[in-house]
Write a structure and sequence with these properties.
Blueprint: H1 2-6, H2 22-36, E1 63-68, E2 74-76, E3 79-81, H3 86-94, E4 101-106, H4 112-129, H5 140-143
Parallel strand pairs: 1-4
Antiparallel strand pairs: 1-2, 2-3
Helix pairs in contact: 3-4
Length: 144
């Protein structure tokens, strides 16, 4: 009888994996990858624009207006021009004496690639003429 009372039921021990430090390791890995990862902040077109409406079109002797419509159509001084011809038109305009300014405007619904293509044509046209590009911001109220 004594032997029965000394025997206790089997106690099973389960092997537990200590997970208390896993949160620390995950946090350290997160901090490491945030510090090491390169975050680019210079996204967009590198264009230095003049102050908004500082001089307006009154202070500019000669002004060429390039409008890009919502459908991608390009108007130069109110006349429809093929997008490929904008470069040569701007180059001829930039060769004029004085400081010619170009106002580039786009409709809100203009596709981004059409606007960038028009901007490239204006900048390359100035480069072809050997002139410094002078972009002008126009008052939206005066454009309507």
């Amino acid at each position: 009888m004594l032997a029965r009372t000394l025997r206790s039921p089997r106690v099973r021990f389960s092997a537990a994996i200590p997970t208390a430090s896993m949160a620390d390791v995950a946090f350290l890995l997160l901090v490491f990858f945030l510090v090491v990862a390169g975050i680019r902040s210079d996204v967009g077109l590198p264009v230095t624009l003049p102050p908004a409406f500082a001089t307006g079109s009154q202070g500019v002797a000669s002004l060429m207006t390039v409008l890009v419509g919502a459908d991608g159509a390009v108007l130069v001084d109110g006349e429809p021009v093929a997008p490929e011809a904008v470069r040569s038109t701007v180059a001829a305009y930039a060769r004029q004496p004085g400081v010619p300014h170009v106002a580039l405007q786009a409709h809100r619904g203009t596709p981004y690639d059409a606007y960038v293509a028009a901007l490239d044509a204006v900048l390359i046209g100035h480069r072809d003429a050997g002139a410094q590009p002078h972009l002008t911001l126009r008052d939206p109220a005066s454009a309507e």
